[in-house]
Design the sequence.
């Protein structure tokens, strides 16, 4: 645009009051000139408002070229467009009204020239063509100004996308200015429909602006990722270049998705710029993330840290939530095939209009593709969560186990740092996961359950490794007990902090209950394992003396059983300090069982060493039975002395000492050494079989007891029990032997007896047929071996030359 000093001076001198605007006074002057009785066209042409148009056009052009168009929220653009629109409306009104007057004059002149005051020769001196000719130069200037405004807006403002996001008020002002043209077009539509092609029409710059907006937003979506990739590559460490780029991508993508709503609010709905912007974002984000993770199969995901995987998962959830909220129709849209090849190719950089339905298809494809990325990232995250949890727990249990020292609490309880070490890691681990996930994310529940399940498995695998002596058992029991309390406190605190969905809470609560139960049972297990270190020295010092001749004849005050209970009491006093009341009670339960088993084991070992088949191992069976009953009474009374403070102990005493009572009754019955006494064994077989659930063990056990006092009748008892085999098996179906039994080593009668018999070398009597069958088997085996030896010798002789000498 060529400007002159005159234009500059005019622009400087003019103010808003002198600018040409479509004011009522201007229309009034136009109407007054056209309504003049004489020389209407002459007065019309002499109006000053027409002579001001060229200078106004030049002023507006100059301002568009020299001033900042975005300053004061695009006020210059608004004013310029308004003045330009006023000029167009003025010319259209002038053209319409003047030609209407000429048409009216012509009609009146034809009807009644004399009676028509307006029908003078001067009034008929103009035609429509003269009006067009007069207005032509002004029309060209004004409509050329419209083209100039359009080109200037597209070239001088810069990126409409940046303007929208950086200065939305300015963009809204620009949109308002553009929309005013459209309002005027609708208002003067009838007039335009009556005109031929090329006649006066209100300028429309809306289509051009919308097209440029599409171009700018599409270009911005690409430029954002290009910029952050370059920046990340320049500033990343070599070891973490891939992670840095993904982090930068997530940050840029988050910013882009967050800009969808501001764009929606800025543009009119019929412009559909938000649809185009959303499509650009979804395309560039889905493509970039697919590339970053190594394609649809996610080959690069194992290289990501847990934190980055969480960030990726969170971003996909944020993306899908944002898009489904903005465009609900894509929620149920499932493109079916979500391969890269199936992606709708809708963007080519030319800013062309896209069918809204096609845009929805494109958004749905991107959403479903990113959900596939989400699935792959979630699977990798859960795998890494499991592996990391395993690694840390193994290190705590194994590597630090040897270095972990025991300490005492203020009240004397033995503990180690195991509980603190485990939960220091677990709390940080779970909090990191939760803080990186959106509120109410279901993934937290799944991840927490995996962490808790790995804690459970590692506890099962390692809980017995700490049992080296009595102190370590006590420390482990207290550690496990504290861990059961700590896990409940940790989960409760997480739930109080909020942000966990109802489904996640349900899953976590179930896993927590299982882990609490496990820790509690292991605490009891450790406390009851103390019996091993209490009774181990007794096996070495007392076991051989029990049921000996000295025990029977000399130890008339049951000194051995008194020694047993005193030893137990000494340890109990220590445990009273080392353990809680609950665990102390459990330890005492184990002492009851261990005492009974120790007494029975010593009795069976006596039977093992007794080899005479006709003579009792006791000098006086009646005296020996009396001594046994006194031993049992002393031990029972000791434990019953604690029932007042531990009421539940009474049930354990009744259950465990019942076996000793039965053993005494069997010995008492066997001491009669009559056939009736053998038949009376039936009364005890069924009761003891419930302890063993194994016919052979039951037969061995009762047979050994009979062997102590009536060895000559052992075979008869064994034969009797064998005849009851079918009945006994019906009482103990397969799988019933472990129900309600303790898993603590050394506290099961059946296991103790089996172990004893597996090492037994005593030859027990059996049926004649069994002996014959055994001899036949041995003979057959020896005959087969001799035959093989003979054949081997024959082969060796035939292959080698015989030395006749």
Sequence:
């Amino acid at each position: 645009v060529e400007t002159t000093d005159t234009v500059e001076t005019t622009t400087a001198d003019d103010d808003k009051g002198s600018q040409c605007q479509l004011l009522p006074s201007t229309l009034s002057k136009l109407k007054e000139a056209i309504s003049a009785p004489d020389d209407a066209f002459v007065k019309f042409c002499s109006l000053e408002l027409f002579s001001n148009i060229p200078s106004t056009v030049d002023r507006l052009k100059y301002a568009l070229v020299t001033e900042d168009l975005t300053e004061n929220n695009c006020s210059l653009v608004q004013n310029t467009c308004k003045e330009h629109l006023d000029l167009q409306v003025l010319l259209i009104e002038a053209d319409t009204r003047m030609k209407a007057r000429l048409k009216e004059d012509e009609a009146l002149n034809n009807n009644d020239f004399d009676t028509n005051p307006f029908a003078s020769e001067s009034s008929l001196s103009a035609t429509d063509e003269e009006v067009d000719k007069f207005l032509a130069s002004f029309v060209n200037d004004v409509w050329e100004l419209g083209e100039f405004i359009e080109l200037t807006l597209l070239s001088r403002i810069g990126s409409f996308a940046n303007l929208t996001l950086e200065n939305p008020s300015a963009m809204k002002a620009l949109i308002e200015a553009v929309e005013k043209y459209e309002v005027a077009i609708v208002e003067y539509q009838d007039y335009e429909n009556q005109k031929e092609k090329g006649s006066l029409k209100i300028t429309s710059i809306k289509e051009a602006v919308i097209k440029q907006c599409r171009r700018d937003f599409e270009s911005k979506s690409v430029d954002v990722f290009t910029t952050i990739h370059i920046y990340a590559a320049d500033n990343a460490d070599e070891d973490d270049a891939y992670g840095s780029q993904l982090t930068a991508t997530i940050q840029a993508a988050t910013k882009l998705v967050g800009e969808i709503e501001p764009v929606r609010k800025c543009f009119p709905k019929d412009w559909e710029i938000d649809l185009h912007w959303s499509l650009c974002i979804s395309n560039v984000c889905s493509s970039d993330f697919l590339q970053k993770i190594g394609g649809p199969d996610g080959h690069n995901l194992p290289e990501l840290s847990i934190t980055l995987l969480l960030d990726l998962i969170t971003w996909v959830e944020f993306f899908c939530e944002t898009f489904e909220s903005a465009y609900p129709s894509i929620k149920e849209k499932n493109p079916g095939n979500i391969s890269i090849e199936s992606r709708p190719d809708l963007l080519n950089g030319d800013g062309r209009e896209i069918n809204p339905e096609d845009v929805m298809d494109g958004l749905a494809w991107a959403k479903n593709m990113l959900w596939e990325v989400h699935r792959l990232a979630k699977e990798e995250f859960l795998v890494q969560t499991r592996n990391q949890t395993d690694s840390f727990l193994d290190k705590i249990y194994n590597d630090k186990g040897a270095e972990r020292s025991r300490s005492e609490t203020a009240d004397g309880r033995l503990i180690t740092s195991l509980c603190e070490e485990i939960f220091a890691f677990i709390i940080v681990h779970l909090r990191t996961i939760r803080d990186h996930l959106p509120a109410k994310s279901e993934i937290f529940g799944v991840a927490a359950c995996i962490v808790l399940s790995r804690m459970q498995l590692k506890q099962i695998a390692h809980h017995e490794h700490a049992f080296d002596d009595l102190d370590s058992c006590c420390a482990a029991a207290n550690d496990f007990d504290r861990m059961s309390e700590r896990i409940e406190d940790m989960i409760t605190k997480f739930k109080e902090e909020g942000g966990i969905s109802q489904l996640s809470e349900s899953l976590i609560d179930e896993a927590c209950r299982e882990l609490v139960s496990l820790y509690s049972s292991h605490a009891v297990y450790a406390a009851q394992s103390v019996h091993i270190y209490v009774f181990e020295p007794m096996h070495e010092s007392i076991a051989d003396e029990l049921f000996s001749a000295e025990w029977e004849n000399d130890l008339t005050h049951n000194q051995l059983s008194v020694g047993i209970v005193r030893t137990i009491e000494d340890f109990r006093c220590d445990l009273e300090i080392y353990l809680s009341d609950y665990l102390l009670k459990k330890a005492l339960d184990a002492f009851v069982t261990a005492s009974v088993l120790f007494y029975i084991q010593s009795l069976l070992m006596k039977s093992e060493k007794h080899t005479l088949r006709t003579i009792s191992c006791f000098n006086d069976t009646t005296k020996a039975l009396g001594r046994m009953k006194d031993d049992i009474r002393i031990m029972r009374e000791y434990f019953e002395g604690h029932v007042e403070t531990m009421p539940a102990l009474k049930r354990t005493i009744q259950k465990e000492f019942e076996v000793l009572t039965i053993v005494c009754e069997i010995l008492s019955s066997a001491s009669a050494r009559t056939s009736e006494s053998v038949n009376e064994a039936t009364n005890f077989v069924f009761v003891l079989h419930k302890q063993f659930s194994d016919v052979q063990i039951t037969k061995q056990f009762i047979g050994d007891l009979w062997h102590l006092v009536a060895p000559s009748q052992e075979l008869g008892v064994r034969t009797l029990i064998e005849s009851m085999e079918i009945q006994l098996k019906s009482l103990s179906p397969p799988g019933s032997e472990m129900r309600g039994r303790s898993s603590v080593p050394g506290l099961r009668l059946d296991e103790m007896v089996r172990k004893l018999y597996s090492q037994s070398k005593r030859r027990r009597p059996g049926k004649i047929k069994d002996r014959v069958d055994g001899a036949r088997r041995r003979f057959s085996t020896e005959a087969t071996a001799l035959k093989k030896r003979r054949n081997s010798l024959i082969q060796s002789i035939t292959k080698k030359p015989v030395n006749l000498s």
About this structure: The first helix runs from residue 5 to 13. DSSP finds 33 helices and two strands in the chain.
